[in-house]
Write a structure and sequence with these properties.
This protein is an alpha+beta fold and 220 residues long. The protein has helices spanning 28-38, 149-162, 174-180, 187-196, 212-216; strands at 3-11, 14-22, 50-56, 59-66, 69-75, 83-88, 90-98, 101-102, 108-112, 122-124, 164-165, 208-211. The protein has one domain (47-216). It is 21% helix and 32% strand.
C-alpha cells in the first residue's frame, strides 16, 4: 500500500492542506543506473572505421575495419624491389589501450572477405610477415602520436601500414598462405593479380583464425 503524507503549503494568503501519495521508493543509485540505461551509452570520439568499442576501468578496445583497397607498401622479402602495390581484403585491427597508452603486445590484425556484422563473426589469418597466427603484430619501432585515444588508435594503424615489412616471422602467416593460395605465392604474383583485379583477395579462402569475440576476450 502506498504511503500518504500531509503537509501545509502556503501560497500568499492561502494555506493548503496537501495530501502527498508516495507510490514507490527506490534507492538513488538504482535510479541513476536506470536513467543511464535509458539515455544510452556515451562513448568517446571513435577512430575512423571503428565498428566496436569497449571500455572497463583503464582498459579500452577499439575494433577498426578497413574496406578492401590497394596499398603501396614497403616490403623486402627475397625478391628485387622494395615498394609494392598490393590489394587487400577487409582488414580488421584490434587496438588495445592500457590507460592512455597503446598496449602493442595485445593489438591484433586480421582479414575478412565481408564486413563485420557482430562480435561472433569469424576473422581470418593475414598473409603478412611480421605477424603471428593469432593476429599479434610485431610492431618494431613504430611510434604512436595523438592527444585522444581515437587519434592514437588511428596513428597506430597508420604506423602499421607505413612500417617496412620484411621476412621476420614469415613462417607464421606469409609462408603458409604463399604455399596454399597461388595468387599470393610471391610479392610479384600478388602485385600482378592486383593489376588484373584489385578485389581478388575477397575470393581467397584465407586460413581461419577463430571469432572476433575470442580475439578481444580478456583485453577489456
Amino acid at each position: 500500500m502506498a504511503n500518504q503524507k500531509q503537509f501545509l503549503r502556503i501560497e500568499g494568503d492561502a494555506v493548503h492542506l496537501v495530501t502527498e501519495r508516495v507510490e514507490r521508493t527506490v534507492r538513488l543509485s538504482d535510479l541513476m543506473e536506470e536513467v543511464g540505461r535509458s539515455k544510452g551509452v556515451t562513448t568517446p570520439i571513435l577512430p575512423l572505421g571503428c565498428r566496436f568499442f569497449s571500455q572497463a576501468g583503464e582498459r579500452s578496445v577499439f575494433v577498426i575495419e578497413q574496406a578492401p583497397t590497394t596499398r603501396k607498401v614497403v616490403w623486402r622479402y627475397m625478391e628485387e624491389g622494395e615498394q609494392w602495390k598490393l590489394a587487400f581484403p577487409y582488414v580488421i585491427f584490434v587496438v588495445v589501450f592500457s590507460g592512455t597508452a597503446v598496449s602493442t603486445g595485445e593489438c591484433r590484425v586480421f582479414y575478412r572477405t565481408r564486413p563485420l556484422g557482430s562480435l561472433e563473426d569469424g576473422v581470418l589469418r593475414t598473409n603478412l610477415c611480421n605477424t603471428y597466427q593469432n593476429g599479434e603484430i610485431c610492431t618494431g619501432d613504430a611510434r604512436v602520436s595523438g592527444d585522444t585515444l581515437a587519434q592514437k588508435a588511428e596513428s597506430f594503424v597508420s604506423a602499421f601500414w607505413k612500417s617496412e615489412f620484411n621476412s621476420d616471422l614469415s613462417e607464421n602467416c606469409w609462408r603458409p598462405a604463399s604455399q596454399k593460395f597461388p595468387p599470393v605465392r610471391s610479392l610479384t604474383a600478388w602485385q600482378t593479380e592486383t593489376q588484373k583485379n584489385p578485389l581478388f583477395p575477397l575470393g581467397i579462402s584465407w586460413f581461419e583464425s577463430g571469432r572476433l569475440c575470442d580475439a578481444i576476450a580478456g583485453r577489456c
